[in-house]
Amino acid sequence: MKMTPGKLAGMKAVSNARGVIAAAAMDQRGSLKKALASEKGGEISDAMMEEFKTAVTEVLTPHASAILLDPQWGLPAAKRRASTAGLLLAYEESGYDNTRPGRRPDLLPTWSVRRLMEAGASCIKILLYYTPFEDAAVNEEKHAWVERIGDECRANDVPFFLEFVGYDPAGGDEKGAEFAKQKPEVVKQSMAEFTKERYGVDVMKVEVPVNMKYVEGARSFVGPAAYTRDQAKQCFLDAAAVSTKPFIYLSAGVSNAEFTESLELAAESGATFSGVLCGRATWKDGIPVYGKQGDAAFRAWLSDQGVVNINNVNKGIEPATPWYACYGVGSADALA
User: Fold this and answer.
1) pTM value?
2) What one-character-per-residue DSSP string does 153-206 give?
3) Considering the domain boundaries, does residue 333 fall inside one?
4) How many domains does the chain have?
5) The CATH number of the domain where 122 resides is what?
């Protein structure tokens, strides 16, 4: 297995010295603006969005191997990241197409992979809402969409990170107990699909395959039980087993305590994950601070609790496997 120079350079840029991806995420847009407006009790300007993202980036990237940002409000922040942190840029529109069923994705209309690289991106990231249980015609459209992006990343020789988030096509509650029972299969089948070479994905950014709130005996447990602890560990192993590419976990908006507990369970299971791309589990509890008290208070919160949070996550990925181990080599340079 050999990697092209650009893909290899990009992967090295967003990994730490161990070859593990310890990345922070700050590419939230619509949901972030809404949450900030709710706490502030008024409209959030473009300048405020940039200010929030810059604060997170400046304070947290000294503790991260990379930062994921968006080109809409994140480019000023990208210039303020730690010199040791690589940069991933998001290519998709926030949310999804509401005019048609199936949570179909859109790309940012004035951006391309080439333009994102010109803006400094080491890697390109795409978010896709996906479930194997969606209508076949909808998923066929999504498959073709991912293939096009994979080919664009190949042509520009840059790593492609694909994030997929499961949902219930029947409109059920994705945070509820019923969906928790379906989630392991949604995650596993999604990983099995997008690990295929045709998509050109270099790293899959995946959900934890269980909902910790329904893992019997977990600290995060609220019940009812959807899985025993042993069953939950098997879910991690089953999902990891179908992957032929490196994969990392996303925090999906859960608390820092819940996400770090899920990382503990992943490690206990023996799943060979290669790190995280973690956003809200590190900084979301600071949203009320920014909304009510402003930038200086938010920076003080980040320097205290935000750093504690990201260090909790970093501790959780100590058992992670280097991304290049997926290809049976002992160093990234062996792929050159």
Assistant:
1) 0.97
2) HHHTT--EEEEEE---TT---TTSHHHHHHHHHHHHHHHHHHTSGGG--SEEEE
3) no
4) 1
5) 3.20.20.70
